Amino acid sequence: MILFACLFLICNPFQKWMKFQRDFENFKTACIPWEMKIKEIESHFGSSVASYFIFLRWMYGINMILFGLTFGLVMVPEALMGKPYGSLPRKTVPRAEEASAMNFATLWDFSGFAQYSVLFYGYYNNQRTIGWLKFRMPLSYFLVGVGTIGYSFMIVIRTMARNANEDGGGDDTSFNFSWKMFTSWDYLIGNPETADNKFASITTSFKEAIVEEQESRKEENIHLTRFLRVLANFLALCTLAGSGYLIFFVVRRSQKFALEGLENYGWWERNEVNMVMSLLGMFCPTLFDVISSLENYHPRIALRWQLGRIFALFLGNLYTFIIALMDEINLKLEEEKIVKYNMTIWEASLYNGTIPENSTAPPIQVDPADVPRGPCWETMVGQEFVRLTVSDTMTTYITILIGDFLRAVFVRFFNYCWCWDLEYGFPSYSEFDISGNVLGLIFNQGMIWMGSFYAPCLPAINVFRLHTSMYLQCWAVMCCNVPQERVFKASRSNNFYMAMLLFILFLSTLPAVYTIVSIPPSFDCGPFSGKTRMFEVISETLEHDFPSWFGKVFGYASNPGLILPFILLMVYV
C-alpha cells in the first residue's frame, strides 16, 4: 500500500505536467489565426484546398509587415509632422476641382481629396527634415520603398528553403492504407464537433490515397492522349493570343480617350482597361479548366498546367498594362515641359503685378488652390494601381456572391421542381477553383509590390482585401461549394506556389526600379521633386549627414565592377 502511494505521488505531478504541456500546445494552436477554420476546410475538402488558405494566411502576414513599414515610417510622420493640407499647392485641391472633390464618384475614382492626401506620392513634401524630430521624410520614403522589396525577397527565399528542408525526401507510401486505417484516429478527442471533423478528415485522406493509387496503375492510349494534349495546348495558346489582342485594343482606345480628355467620357471609358483585365481574369481560368479536361493528367499535374496557363495570361495582361502606363508617363513628361514654360510666364506676371483681371488670385499672396501645377505622373501611376486592385477585389467578391452563392441557392431550392437533377446535372454546385484563386493572390501581390512606391496606401488596401477574403471565401467554401470529384493530396512542399511568387516579385521590381533609376521625378510634387533622379536622396544624405570618407567608401562599394562579381559569386554559391 505504501509503495502504491509513493508511486502515485511521483506520477501525479508528471501527469499534471504532461496535461499542462498538451493544454499549452492546444492554446498555441488556437492562437494561430484561422487555424480551426482551415482545419475544418481540410477535413471536408482535402489538403489541396486547405493549402490555398494556408498560402493566403501567409500572404496576410507578409502584407501586415509591409503595411506597418509604410504606415509607421511614411504616412503617419507626414500626417503628424508635415505641413498641413492647404499649405502648399501639392497639398491642395485645385480651384477648378473643388466643387466635385467630395463627390462619391470622384472619391471612388481616387481623385479629389483622396488624390491630394497621404494616400499618394504627390502629397509628400521634399523638405529634407520635417517636424521637431527632424524626421528625414524623403530618405525614409526611399528606404521604405527599397526595404519592402528587400524584405519580400528575403522572406520568400527563406520560406522556400524551409519548405525544401522540411520535405525530407522520405518514402511515405509504404503500407499507406494500413497506416491510415490503424493510426489515424485521435483517442483523446472529447468534443463531438471535433470528432465529426476528424472523421471527415480521415475519409478525405482515404479518397486522396485511392486517387494516388489509381493514377499509379492507370493504363492509357498514348497516341490519343498525345493528340488531346496537343489540341488542348493549341486552344490555350489561342485563348492567350485573343486575350493579348483584346488588352492591346483596349489600351489603344484608352490612350485615345486620354488625348481627347477623360472628362468627356463616362465611367466605363475611364475604367475600361481595369474592368477588361478583371473580366479576363475571371472568365479565362474557367475556359482553361474546360480545356484541361482533354488532357487526362494526374490532378496535381493538371493543377500545375492550369496554374502555368493562368500565369501566362495574367503576366501578359500585367505587362501590357505597364506598357500603357509607360506611354502615359511619356505624355505627362511632355506636358510637364509646357507647364514649366507657362508657370514661368505666370510667375513673371505675378511678380510684375500684371495678373489678368478675371483671375481669382490676389496680386501678391496667392492661394495654393489657384497656383498652376504640373502633371504628377507618380500619383497617376499610384492611382492606376489602386483602381486596378479595387476593381479586381470587387470582381472577386461579385464572382463569389453570384457564381457560388446564388448558384447554390438556385440549385438548392429549384432542384425539386426542375426537369432534371440540378445537383448532378447542369448547373450543379460549384467546386473551389484552386488555380484561379492562387494566381489571383499572386498577381494581386505583384500589383502591390509594383505600385506601393507611388501609392503608400496599397499595402493597407491589400491587408483589408486579404482579411475579408479569408472570411468570405471560408464561408463560400463551406456553404456553397462541394468537394472535387477527384480529391487529390497536395504536394508535400508548397514551393511551386513560392516559385511563382518569387518570379512575380522579380518581374514586379523591374518597372519600379526602371522608373526610380531612369525617369526624372515630377518637378512640383512628391518627396523627390527638384532632383534629376529619385536615388539622389542617398548621395544627398551621405554628403550632408556623414563624413566625407564614408561617402567615398560607399561610392567605391557601389561600383558596378564590384557589385556584378559579388552577385555572380552569390549565384554560383
UniProtKB/TrEMBL annotation:
GO MF annotation list: mechanosensitive monoatomic ion channel activity; voltage-gated calcium channel activity
- According to the entry, every stretch annotated as the TMC domain falls at 376-491
Chief localization? membrane
InterPro entries cross-referenced by the UniProt entry: TMC, TMC_dom
Q: Which UniProt keywords apply?
A: Membrane, Transmembrane, Transmembrane helix
Compartments, as annotated in UniProt: Membrane
Topology in membrane: Multi-pass membrane protein
Q: Which GO terms describe its biological process?
A: detection of mechanical stimulus involved in sensory perception of sound; vestibular reflex
List GO terms (cellular component aspect). Answer: plasma membrane
The transmembrane residues are: 58-80, 101-124, 139-157, 227-251, 275-294, 306-326, 496-517, 553-572
Query: What Pfam family is a match, any one?
Result: TMC
What is the similarity comment for this entry?
Answer: Belongs to the TMC family.
Q: What is this protein called?
A: Transmembrane channel-like protein
Q: What is the lineage of its organism?
A: Eukaryota, Metazoa, Chordata, Craniata, Vertebrata
